[in-house]
Amino acid sequence: MITIKNLSVVYTTDEKTRQNKTVLADIGLSLSAGTVNIVIGPSGGGKSTLLKVIAGLIDHSAGTVKLGGADGCEPIIGFMPQSCGLLPWETIRENVELAAGLRLKKTGASAADCDNMKKQSLALMKQLGIDALAYCYPSEVSGGQQQRAALGRMFLLRPDILLMDEPFSALDELTRGEVRQLFAALCAGRRQDDCKPMTVLMVTHQVEEAVLLGEKIIVLDGKIKAVLDNPYRGQSENLCSQERAEFIVRLRRLLDREGGSTP
What we know:
Elements: E1 2-14, E2 19-31, E3 36-40, H1 47-55, E4 62-67, E5 77-80, H2 92-106, H3 111-128, H4 143-157, E6 161-165, H5 173-193, E7 199-203, H6 207-213, E8 216-220, E9 224-229, H7 242-255
Parallel strand pairs: 3-7, 3-8, 5-6, 6-7
Antiparallel strand pairs: 1-2, 1-4, 8-9
Helix pairs in contact: 2-3, 2-4, 3-4, 4-5
């Protein structure tokens, strides 16, 4: 669960004149555990900043951020950047197992735990269609295959909170569609197989992607313009009902800035 109250982020843009720029202002947000939530908004609207604040990568100027983990423990947070973040000197399998392996070492896991993690990683790589690439390096596989490995790493980590910053934006449209489907399938599988719910917060600049994946859609432009429940999640873009089309038009209007253009 993610609970944000009165959050503001202010940057100093000029040390001499002490000029400041407000990136986020008075953000209030409550996201239930186990849900998939999408943030959309124009460039410079603070979407990536919001993720980084939640991840603890940057400080906020005011307000509170509370993150709920399983059984009241400190939550495990996964962060998936736009660049995939694979280590070029590690194989695909090593990259997939990296975060989970570090976690097991930190907690002093047994040999049985490590063996179980390796079995899970192989099963996950097979589901993602990259099991044959286990011993290849990132530079030897396609961008879509790298993105699948990055997804595998995050899901093997089994985070309480998964933050994703435009994770599919560098992919061509065909590959993007395939990876979206894999992401949705992994989220569904996590809900069925794991008693620990995973809360997802993903940034995208594509309205159609937000409607396809998000249970809740947050429109952000420095401040929250709207938080909408999405009744059309999972519906194919090719099966566009009039109601779904009108919902997309509503989102595009919310994204409009005065004097700006619609994404």
